[in-house]
Design brief:
With about 100 residues, the protein is mostly helical. It contains three helices and no strands. The protein has one domain. InterPro entries: DUF1232.
């Protein structure tokens, strides 16, 4: 009975990690779509594509049953895209307002 319990726990953990990776991938695509017309640097756009390629690639730092590396790469890409959008957005706090 103990082996069945561990098997169920392992499967649930794997499903949870795969779900997190899928949710993060969707968020990266949504963030990328929002940044298409923004003045985002090429470096941030390249990071997005690198995260997508790494996530769907069969080559991983950690074998595929563990999605921690994929989740980490997607989190880094999301943070970089968000930072680039904030920096390039028209509502920057450090820029003076338009005089009219």
């Amino acid at each position: 009975m103990d082996s069945d319990l561990w098997l169920v726990v392992a499967v649930l953990l794997l499903l949870a990690m795969a779900g997190c990776a899928a949710v993060l991938l969707v968020r990266v695509f949504k963030a990328r779509r929002l940044l298409l017309d923004a003045g985002v640097p090429l470096r941030s756009k390249a990071l997005f594509w690198a995260a997508v390629v790494y996530t769907v690639s069969p080559v991983d730092l950690i074998p595929d049953p563990v999605y921690l590396d994929d989740i980490g790469v997607l989190l880094i890409a999301l943070r970089a895209l968000h930072t680039a959008a904030v920096r390039s957005g028209p509502d920057r706090e450090d820029e003076p307002a338009d005089p009219k």
